[in-house]
Amino acid sequence: MKLLETVKINQWNLQSRVVMAPMTRSFADQETGIIHPDTVAYYAKRVKHGVGMIITEGIAISPEARGTIGIPGLYMDAQTEAWKEVTEQVHQEGGIIIAQLWHVGRLSHSAITGGIQPVAPSAVQANGLTHRVGLPYEMPKAMTVEDIRKVVQDFTTAAINARLAGFDGVEIHAAHGYLIDQFHFPWVNFRKDEYGRNRYLFLEEILQAVSDSIGSEQVIVRFSEHKDDAPLFFWEKPEEEIKEILEVFRSTGIRIIHPSARSYQKALAKHELTLHALVRKYWDGVVIGVGELTPEIAEESLANGEIQLAAFGRPLLSNVDFVRRIKDKKGIKDYNSKVDLQYLK
Ligand SMILES: Cc1cc2nc3c(=O)[nH]c(=O)nc-3n(C[C@H](O)[C@H](O)[C@H](O)COP(=O)(O)O)c2cc1C
Could you tell me which CATH class the domain 2-344 is placed in? Predict the structure, then answer.
């Protein structure tokens, strides 16, 4: 099976094309943002059973980047130090590990950020409640240009820290309605300045700054149509939107992209193609597929060249030995969110 074959992507030798999708676990210490010691085994075990690449849970780039409790950070030395054990163990088991860098923007509350008012492109409050804690999203502060520069710098510092911690690269989380995506989102970006006229400028500046400091070949970017807080949102002109975002990746030297779909096989609301098929039409670099993939769907999409890597989220929570189960043709256990916590180990 192509899915289980080794592959070289950029400078990375992967033991399979199976990627662990980024999944927030909320197990870090809320005060310090230092990972829980069990995090080491949690990732290393999945690699031991054959996962080629881990993309970690979203990691905060600053205290105000956090949208729920227990989010680990990469903005303090002690946090960076603690991650070293994870990367060492994953490497020892033959895996590649990428740190997902995250800022939630307005999808937060000052009770979570340590008293700091959440920020957004414009002062527009989101509907809904923060994950796990259940606090209503707070009215955000509209970012000044100085705030924007600080966030660009925070992403860069976190990326440098990720490399110091031994990560093989970083994934910039520009999906799901979080801060970077809030700039793309016409319901939230009413800015009259250049960040409003060019909704992708903030993303471009972050990708450029991070690439300049750690090398563009170490950078993956995740984007999506769907926003966690706006289930009814869809792109009016998906083809235009995708062409525009891919141009930003090209201009900043990014070669590996991670378009995020809730369901890989479902066509976009306003297009006959799926997200990944539409992306492939305009992109000749590496694409990571994701969204309710099964080993069979992944295999077909790898074989026809639509994707080069296949990411699995929930199946890797409920099956620590997911890759082995595919090899041995054993069944895959279903994910059950009600008993999710027991899957940590
Ligand atoms: C518990 C859980 C936590 C998640 N946390 C994140 C996250 O931190 N960052 C992110 O980009 N996506 C996150 N996602 C989305 C997953 O990366 C993935 O795209 C999604 O689960 C679809 O893949 P699947 O159908 O194989 O589970 C999360 C999903 C789950 C189930």
Answer: alpha beta
